[in-house]
Amino acid sequence: MKKKLKVAITGGIGSGKSSVCEIINSKGYPVIYADDISKEILSTDKSVQDKIVTEFGKESFHNNLPNTKYLAEKVFSDPQKINRINSILHPPTIEKIKNSMEEKLSKSEMVFIEAALIYEAEMEDMFDYIIVVASPAETRIIRSINSKKIDRSEVLRRINSQLPEEKKKKLADFVIENNGSMEELKSKTNFVLSVLDALRK
User: Fold this and answer.
1) Quick one: CA torsion of 199, 106, 34, 112, rounded to 10 degrees?
2) Quick check: pTM over 0.85?
3) N or C: which end of the chain has fewer CB within 10 A?
């Protein structure tokens, strides 16, 4: 019987994780997005909201919805505050990811989890393999400015708050270099999928 696999997809801001996830999803494999789970918890979990208000003030929410602009300005500028918000959000997020992975694996042979902070949140042990999506620094900056509608200084601040890409690459089981066309990215991603499928035997 083939082994079922839990695979994490990570990489810095603007690296192209989402594109890799779309390719994997188009092949019929389920992808869980840690960021979506985290946002859902932030928007619906009253105990999490209370902790964040205590820590960062009432401006953190408007009508029970996270004031993302305020939180980004208040939190991303300060490494200690990043650690603090992560310590509130990560435990319930990780719990939900674990439950979601088990649910997906009841119907699929492999499940993929897209999360920017696999290493920062010390989540490595939850997965059989980790894929890092890497891209040249300037490309990542331009992509992030265009897709997230934030300025260069904000992108650099977020890049600096994450583990350096070179470190992530050294820790990863697979590295997908996103430095060419979409066709090349598809080809590289499909190759990694075929290797993962072979590793299940």
Assistant:
1) 20
2) yes
3) N
